[in-house]
Amino acid sequence: MVRQVNPSSVNSAVDRSSDDLAQRRLARQGQIESPRSQPAAPQPEVQPVQLPKSKRKVTQSKTTQSKTIQSKTAQAHTLARFNQSWKYWKWHLVWLGTMGLFAGTGLGAYFWLAGLPPLPDCQSITPLSADANRLYCAQETARSGKLDDLVTGINLVKDWSPNHPLYHNSQRALAKWSRLVTLAARDKMAQNDFKGAAAAISKIPASSPAHADAQKTLSEWQIQWQKGEDLSTKAVEAMNQQNWKAAFDQVTELGYLDHDYWRMTQADRLSKQISVQKSSQESLVQAKKLAKKLVPNEMGAAIELLQNVAPETAAWAEAQSLLTSWSQDLLKIALQHWQEGDEAGAMQMAAQVPLNLDLAADAADLVKLSHAHKLVEESSQESLAVGKLGWRQLWSLIESTTAAQQIVPDSPIYAAAQLKLQDWQAQLQDLKQLQMAQMAADLGQKPALELAIQQANQVSADRPRHEQAQRLAATWQQQIQQLEDLPYLRLAQQWATPQTVAALQLAIQQAQVIPNGRAIWTQAQAQVVSWQQQIQRIEDQPILDQAQQLAKANKLDEAIDKAAEIRPERALSAQAEAAISTWKEKIRAASLAEDQAILDQARDAAGSGDLTGGIAAAAQLSPGRPLYLEAQSLIGDWLRERDGDPKLPAPEASAPESSSSGEGDISNSASDASSDANSDASSDANSDADSATEPAAVDAAAPVP
């Protein structure tokens, strides 16, 4: 059976749910005990009833209705629970919203108070605007650093009194602007604009903290400027009086001023001006001295000196007047030489006269022709010095032919000008052909050089530029030889790279392939000599190293013999000879030290009264020793002293057998003294040492004076 659902029971269940919610709310508030703590009432157990199959459809329909009712019941229960919760939370939400509103309002007020006010619009600022806004705009404008903007800011705040609310801010700005104005004034002074600098400094008001410093700076500038002007004036006055020493002294004083304009710029300008004035005046004086005798050569030199006079000098006007006068006098002499048939002399004199003078027609024609001839000659000499053609020669010939063509037929030098014109035109034609050949040769390739040689050979022997063409052809032929032979030399250099004897010998053979008379034969021979010297170094270096090793082992005699094996013509002969000289000097120094020790020993013995022992010691120095002669002299002195007659003369070297009647033979005495000294010195001395000492003593006695 299906259990029937009573609507009243549903309502009662909803009421119970509402009561349960109310009880839970009261329990949370602590008014009653939570219903969960109370034991639940036992629910009656419902036993399912089995329906017959015939009534299942009816039962299913009722079940569907029951589920629908239960769903609606659950929805109603949820809605009721939401209504209860909303009644509980709505006041909390109201309070939270109120608190958020107040917090947002306070936070917005804080940011509004803490934030900066809006900046003023400097484009719309007027004299009626607030002082704070005007000061701000003045500061912004002064950021440009321009003098006018700085002065505008200074004029705005310079009259503000200490009672002004923005006085302290204005003073800081005024000090800053004043310093910037001073810097701008310094820039003007650096540009030598004293007036502009003074005007800028005057813009700094007395109310500025930097006013005193600015006035001090201006005062220093005024003093320096006035002193510089005074010195410059004195220098110019001395220069005009040609007192060059006084003028340069004033310039020197300018160099001690602090300002760069006077110390460097003005001093340098005045120094150059005085130098030019002095040089021009000296040229004028020297020219006058040369022109007094009216000698053509000296007059030409005088005219040349007058051309050195600078236009801005005091001597310029007089120099121009003398230049015209002397030029006319010199041209008269030149025309006389021309009429006498001395064309070369006449042209040489006329060439010294400048072209820009106002002269007579005949004289002017002679000057033109002379300068044209001089221009051609100078360009030809320059071409010979350089060794190749240049465009200057071509232009010189063109200018010369143009000048010769300007001489009219009725001129007395017309015939000579026509001869020169024909010659120059022929040279110009040859030069054009050679210039084309030069352009081909500049390519540097063998076919181009051969073509250039062919073109140069076309200039026949009767042409004026034939010799120059042949020189150019010879030069280009040498370039062809270089192109042909250089690969052989490069190959030889490549083979010599290993720096071994075999490689160097092979390189020498390769370089000797280049025959004598070729363009790079000298270079190849120099390379061959260098490689031969390298071979000699490789062969002789072991000998020299071995000799040096012997010298390090203190075997100097053997080292000398070894180094002497290097022949004088070898590459290391100089090093070997230097080493041999050093080692010989060491041997001599050692021998000298040994001899000196022996002589010291002999002197000690003689000084202690043992003259015989001293004689025997000194007699140890054999002939050829460094101190042999000194030892022989000491032996003679000691023999005379020992034999009792210090004034006894020594026997002549030519008669060693002579003896004194009173004292006996000195040689015998020396021999006896040596024998006695040797026997007393050591009982172990053998007879060989005694026999060696005796002849030394005899020899020592012979040369004593």
Overview of the structural elements:
The chain is extended. The chain starts with 6 loop residues before the first helix and ends with a helix. With 705 residues, the protein is mainly alpha-helical. It is built from 25 helices and no strands. 71% of the residues lie in helices and 0% in strands.
Order of helices and strands: HHHHHHHHHHHHHHHHHHHHHHHHH
Largest sheet: none
Question: Overall pLDDT, averaged?
Answer: 78
Count helical runs. Answer: 25
How would you describe the shape? extended
* Low-pLDDT segments, ≥5 res: 1-15, 29-49, 646-705
Separation of termini? 179 Å
Structural class: mainly alpha
Proportion in β-strands:
under 5%
Compact description:
The protein has 705 residues and is mainly alpha-helical. It is built from 25 helices and no strands. 71% of the residues lie in helices and 0% in strands.
